Amino acid sequence: MAVLIIFILLCLLSFLCYSLFFIKPKDSRDGRDLPPSPPSLPIIGHLHLILLSTLTHKSFQRLSSKYGPLLHLRIFHVPIVLASSASVAYDIFRDQDVNVSFRHSPPIEESLFLGSYSFISAPYGDYWKFMRKLMVTKILGPQALERSRRFREDELDRFYKTLLDKAIKKESVEIVEEAAKLNNNTICKMIMGRSCSEETGEAERIRGLVTESMALTKKIFLATIFHKPLKKLGISLFKKEIMSVSRKFDELLEKILVEHEEKMEEHHQGTDMMDVLLEAYRDENAEYKITRNHIKSMFVVSVFFFFFFYVGS
After folding, report:
1. Which family does it belong to (predicted)?
2. Which of 160, 182, 251, 253 lies 20 to 30 A from 112 at CA?
3. 3-state SS of the chain: helix, strand, coil percent to 5?
4. What are the residue boundaries of the structural domains of the chain, listed by start?
C-alpha cells in the first residue's frame, strides 16, 4: 500500500513538473519563422544567460552583441523576443504598437512601482495613452530637454570645478564617487528641480530604494513566469518587501510634492518633471484625471530607469 501511494505521488509530481516547465502556451508560434536563438538548457531555457550579470540589461547587451539585434529567448515555458537595435525596435512599435503595449493585470495593484499606478505596468487604456502623450510632448520632448539644459550645464561645471580644485591642491579625488554625484544631482534636478541632499542622507536614501527596487523587480519577474499556483505563491513571498519599499518612496515623495505645491502657490514657473505632472494633476479639463499616486509612481519609474541605465551602466 505504501509503495502504491509513493508511486501515485511520484506520478503527480512528474505531471506537475511537466505542466509547469514543458507545456507551451496555447498561442505558441510553432511553425512560424522565429528570430535566431542562443543555445538553451533543458527546462530553464536561457535563464542562465540572463542571470550572468546582476544588471539584466548588461546580460541582454552581451547576448545581442554575440547573436544579433533580434533574438528569440525562452525562460522555462515563456517565449521572449529581445530587440536591441533602435531600427528594429522602431519597426516593432510602428507595426505592433497595441500588441507591445498590452499588459496583463499588474502583480501587486497597490505598489507604486509594480502596481496599476505605474506607467510601465499599467494595462493599455486611457491612463496609459494619456501618460504616453504627456511623456512625448512635455516630459521627454525636445522642448523639455532644452529647458533642462541649464541643470545639466550647472552640474557639469560643478564637477569640473571639483576636479580642478583637487588638482590645484594636489589632493586625490575619487572619480567614481564624483561621477555618481554628477549623475545623481543631474537626475534629481531634471525630475524635481533640485539636487538630492548628501548632508541629510536624502541622496543615499533614494539610491538605496532604487537598489532594492532593482533586486525586487528581478525576483518578481522570475515569480510571474510560472503557471498558477506557483505564480501566486512567488508574488506573495515578495509582497511584503515590495510594499515596504513602496511606503518608503511614498513618504519621501509626499514631502517633495508638498514643496512643489508651495512653490506653485508662489507663482513659481517650474521646468522640471514634477511641475509638469502637478500641472496635469490640477488641470480639471485634462483627458485623464491623474492622482497623487500616479505622480509618485512616475517619479519612482523615472528615477529607477535613470539610475538603471546611467548609474548602473
Report:
1. Belongs to the cytochrome P450 family.
2. 182
3. 65, 5, 30
4. 33-102, 132-311
